[in-house]
């Protein structure tokens, strides 16, 4: 991928983003696993929808407080909202 050549601001191993998933480069966004924890499909989908709306000119911001976390067990355990 040669990610180092892009000279993006990093947050550990993840690409650093703001509340709009904007990276340190103009017109470059990062969503999902690229942007760090939590690495959940629900989060990536919400971020992708938001970025698409931002590109189309709408005003949006990512609020991760409502992304569910699932522990895949039988039965499943689900947590939504802020944790202590």
Describe, in plain words, how this protein is organized in 3D:
It is globular, with a radius of gyration of 14 Å. The strands form two sheets. The protein has a two-stranded antiparallel sheet. The N and C termini lie far apart (38 Å). The longest helix has 15 residues. With 84 residues, the protein is of the alpha+beta class. The mean pLDDT is 85. It is 18% helix and 12% strand.
**Percent of residues in helical segments?**
10-25%
**Poorly predicted residue ranges:** none
Helix/strand class: alpha+beta
The biggest sheet amounts to:
2 strands, antiparallel
Approximate strand percentage: 5-15%
Average of per-residue pLDDT values: 85
Strand order of the largest sheet: 1-2
Number of β-strand runs? 4
| Count of discrete alpha- or pi-helical segments spanning 4 or more residues | 1
Task: Label this structure with key terms.
globular, 18% helix, 84 residues, two-stranded antiparallel sheet, single chain
What is the element layout, followed by pairings?
Blueprint: E1 10-11, E2 14-15, H1 41-55, E3 69-71, E4 77-79
Antiparallel strand pairs: 1-2, 3-4
């Amino acid at each position: 991928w040669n990610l180092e050549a892009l000279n993006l601001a990093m947050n550990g191993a993840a690409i650093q983003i703001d509340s709009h998933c904007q990276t340190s480069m103009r017109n470059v966004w990062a969503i999902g696993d690229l942007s760090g924890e939590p690495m959940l499909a629900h989060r990536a989908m919400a971020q992708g929808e938001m970025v698409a709306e931002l590109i189309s000119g709408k005003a949006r911001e990512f609020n991760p407080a409502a992304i569910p976390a699932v522990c895949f067990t039988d039965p499943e355990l689900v947590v939504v909202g802020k944790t202590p």
